[in-house]
Design goal:
This protein is of the alpha/beta class and 181 residues long. Helices cover 19% and strands 23% of the residues. Strands 3-5-6-7-8-9 form a 6-stranded parallel β-sheet. A 3-stranded antiparallel β-sheet has the order 2-1-4, with no helix packed on it.
């Protein structure tokens, strides 16, 4: 048992237990948490006396499930420390209330990019001053998205377009190199 004095008093080692779909996750506190599953935990328990659910959500730094925000999420939940995000467009209103800040975001993967969602991506870029890596994927072969040449963000250092299902010619590559992104 992790509730013994050996763990709690002598070692100050606290454990949190989560279940997501029949899978049990045990980890010690404090620690950051990555969401690779489609949904939030079904069950949440902790032996740390000051632990609470908002503290758990504050420690989520990575979301690697692009449809995560499509589920029903309680309105009081806030994810304030996201630094690695995979998201599928379009972005719903729930996303903006749950993720109040993208100040820490350094890596962003976008799926299903089209010019139709240009304002969504530019809004994300505007709120992410520390963004270093941007990956844009398309699920299907689409014509070149003109918006790729219009996005602006001064902090992006690496742009990954490998999964765009489009072959850039030399002129388009040069335009991208000189784009404001």
């Amino acid at each position: 048992s992790f509730r013994s004095s050996f763990w709690i008093e002598e070692h100050q080692w606290f454990v949190r237990c989560l279940t997501v779909k029949k899978t049990i996750y045990l980890y010690n506190l404090p620690s950051s948490f990555c969401i690779c599953e489609r949904k939030l935990p079904d069950l949440w328990r902790s032996i740390y006396p000051d632990d609470n659910q908002q503290e758990f959500y504050n420690n989520i730094t990575t979301i690697h499930n692009e449809t995560f925000f499509n589920q029903l999420i309680l309105p009081e939940i806030r994810l304030r420390n996201i630094n690695d995000l995979h998201i599928r467009f379009s972005i719903n209103d729930q996303f903006w209330s749950i993720v109040p800040s993208l100040e820490r975001l350094s890596s962003l993967n976008i799926s299903y990019h089209t010019d139709h969602f240009q304002s969504h991506l530019q809004a994300l870029l505007d709120l992410a001053p520390r963004l270093r890596y941007l990956c844009i994927d398309q699920d299907q072969s689409l014509p070149l998205q003109i918006s790729l040449f219009k996005y602006t963000n001064k902090s992006v250092r690496e742009l990954n377009l490998q999964n765009c299902n489009y072959l850039f010619d030399e002129e388009e590559c040069m335009r991208l190199c000189h784009s404001p992104l």
